[in-house]
Amino acid sequence: MPPRTCALCNDARAILKRPKTGQQICKDCFFWVFETEVHNTIVEAGLFKPGDRVAIGASGGKDSTVLAHVMKTLNDRYDYGLELFLLSIDEGITGYRDDSLETVKRNQQQYDMPLKILSYDEIFGWTMDAIVSQVGKKNNCTFCGVFRRQALDRGAASLHVDHIVTGHNADDIAETVLMNIMRGDIARLGRCTMICTQGEDTIKRSKPFKYAYEKEIVMYAYFKKLDYFSTECIYSPDAYRGHARAFLKDLEAARPSAIIDIIHSGEAFEVREEVKATQKSQQTCKRCGYMSSNDLCKACTLLEGLERGMAQAAITDRARKRLDAEGPAPDNLRTIPFFQNSTTPGTSTPVALETPS
Amino acid sequence: MGSQSIPTVSVKVEFGGGLELLFANQRTHRVALLARLPSPASGTAGPSNDGQSDVAVAAAAAGRPADVAYLIHWLRDNLLTERPELFVEGETVRPGILVLVNDTDWELEGEGDYVLKEGDEIVFISTLHGG
Ligand SMILES: [Zn+2]
Ligand SMILES: [Zn+2]
């Protein structure tokens, strides 16, 4: 088969077939279109303004590693004027997170960005290893998801950043659309395709890779020889998501535009106001100050269950009633440090960053 | 090599993105395959490496030349140490695994039909692991 010429520059040899367009392009054109499309996504959604402090949620995996690289590249190329940080959460999973954090520490040097690592242990007093030893491997993803969300917000508040960007890509979003449909979670369906989410009280979060295909992210990392970590979480048998992912990959193999098509379908759903209103209004958690739709936030409820040896309490209503029947939480219960959402720089103590090793 | 030796094609295989875990946690492997697939119709040795006419004649007798599809099956049967369903699905790699032939997307090289040449580098990368 003769070498094929790049469809964009008509000069160099093509090395990649783009899943989105079917175009065959060369390496340099690939880097350029990939970066430019992310730039266009950022500009069209008006994600940033000059002077913003932006934390990149960094796991050491492919998506966040490529995101850090691309954010740095675009910030320099187009003069966004952003101050970029790496923010990592240490869930306390031996043999998994400790290795991926080593990758993040190398990224800190490679990209010359300040890094903040926050652990479940220091915020909640529990590592995932300890949680799994109590609750088993069935519901541990619930704990991890709730704790990670709050840990990222707390890390962002301590860095006084305005904004957290995460590496969620088009495949992830399409998968979430499918899962929300399959679960009948229409309120979430309306939100999951949004590129940027911000409640009154929450730190802005956005997904610059919303339209970036996983294939291209992995190819980008490969051709740029980026240093990333790729091991499945040892506790992650989220079977439902696994099926959704396998189904999506089968669809993509048959028709590569399926991923973008599903995102567009998700965007096109009009969610009725009554359905949106099933989300309760936000207040702050009476115990830890984090935003919550109940008196106690999810993290405090989960933590109380763990501390009182009734970890199921926050997962099912019946178990919660059993916990309540045991009486109020004891005074000496371990709680989460009070949350202060201080996004104004200079109003609180300086942050302890990781020292580059 | 004497004239009796069976022609082989040797290629470099690399695994990434977590796939190496299925292959004894080793990223790079050198493998030598029969240049032509053993075929029930052929009892004779394959063609020599030079001489196109020989190739054409022998092609009918021996099986098809070793291609990437054959390599995938060979890897599953000979190098894979666990969970074959994470590598192979049906006749090809599981969806979500990217394949590169000499640093080019295999979708530009005919995918499984690409015929292996001596010294080729074939890379398999899983996209399914972690974010
Ligand atoms: Zn080009
Ligand atoms: Zn709370």
From TrEMBL, chain A:
Residues 54-232 form the tRNA(Ile)-lysidine/2-thiocytidine synthase N-terminal domain. GO terms for molecular function: ATP binding; nucleotidyltransferase activity; tRNA binding. The gene is NCS6. Residues 283-313 form the Cytoplasmic tRNA 2-thiolation protein 1 C-terminal domain. GO terms for biological process: protein urmylation; tRNA wobble position uridine thiolation. SUPFAM superfamilies: Adenine nucleotide alpha hydrolases-like. This is Cytoplasmic tRNA 2-thiolation protein 1. Its EC number is 2.7.7.-. Belongs to the TtcA family. CTU1/NCS6/ATPBD3 subfamily. It is found in: Cytoplasm. Residues 338-357 have a biased composition (Polar residues). It is an enzyme of class 2 (transferase). Keywords: ATP-binding, Cytoplasm, Nucleotide-binding, RNA-binding, Transferase, tRNA processing, tRNA-binding. ATP binds at G57, A58, S59, D63, I89, G167, D172. One of its GO terms (cellular component) is cytosolic tRNA wobble base thiouridylase complex. It comes from Postia placenta MAD-698-R-SB12. Plays a central role in 2-thiolation of mcm(5)S(2)U at tRNA wobble positions of tRNA(Lys), tRNA(Glu) and tRNA(Gln). Directly binds tRNAs and probably acts by catalyzing adenylation of tRNAs, an intermediate required for 2-thiolation. It is unclear whether it acts as a sulfurtransferase that transfers sulfur from thiocarboxylated URM1 onto the uridine of tRNAs at wobble position. Prior mcm(5) tRNA modification by the elongator complex is required for 2-thiolation. May also be involved in protein urmylation. The keyword rRNA processing does not apply. Pathway: tRNA modification; 5-methoxycarbonylmethyl-2-thiouridine-tRNA biosynthesis. The lineage of its organism: Eukaryota, Fungi, Dikarya, Basidiomycota, Agaricomycotina. Residues 325-357 are annotated as: Disordered.
From TrEMBL, chain B:
There is a cross-link at G131 (Glycyl lysine isopeptide (Gly-Lys) (interchain with K-? in acceptor proteins)). Keywords: Cytoplasm, Isopeptide bond, tRNA processing, Ubl conjugation pathway. One of its GO terms (cellular component) is cytosol. GO terms for biological process: protein urmylation; tRNA thio-modification; tRNA wobble uridine modification. C-terminal thiocarboxylation occurs in 2 steps, it is first acyl-adenylated (-COAMP) via the hesA/moeB/thiF part of UBA4, then thiocarboxylated (-COSH) via the rhodanese domain of UBA4. InterPro entries: Beta-grasp_dom_sf, Mopterin_synth/thiamin_S_b, Urm1. Pathway: tRNA modification; 5-methoxycarbonylmethyl-2-thiouridine-tRNA biosynthesis. Pfam families: Urm1 (PF09138). The modification 1-thioglycine is found at G131. It is found in: Cytoplasm. Its main location: cytoplasm. It comes from the Eukaryota. The keyword tRNA processing applies. Belongs to the URM1 family. Acts as a sulfur carrier required for 2-thiolation of mcm(5)S(2)U at tRNA wobble positions of cytosolic tRNA(Lys), tRNA(Glu) and tRNA(Gln). Serves as sulfur donor in tRNA 2-thiolation reaction by being thiocarboxylated (-COSH) at its C-terminus by the MOCS3 homolog UBA4. The sulfur is then transferred to tRNA to form 2-thiolation of mcm(5)S(2)U. Prior mcm(5) tRNA modification by the elongator complex is required for 2-thiolation. Also acts as a ubiquitin-like protein (UBL) that is covalently conjugated via an isopeptide bond to lysine residues of target proteins such as AHP1. This is Ubiquitin-related modifier 1. It comes from Postia placenta MAD-698-R-SB12.
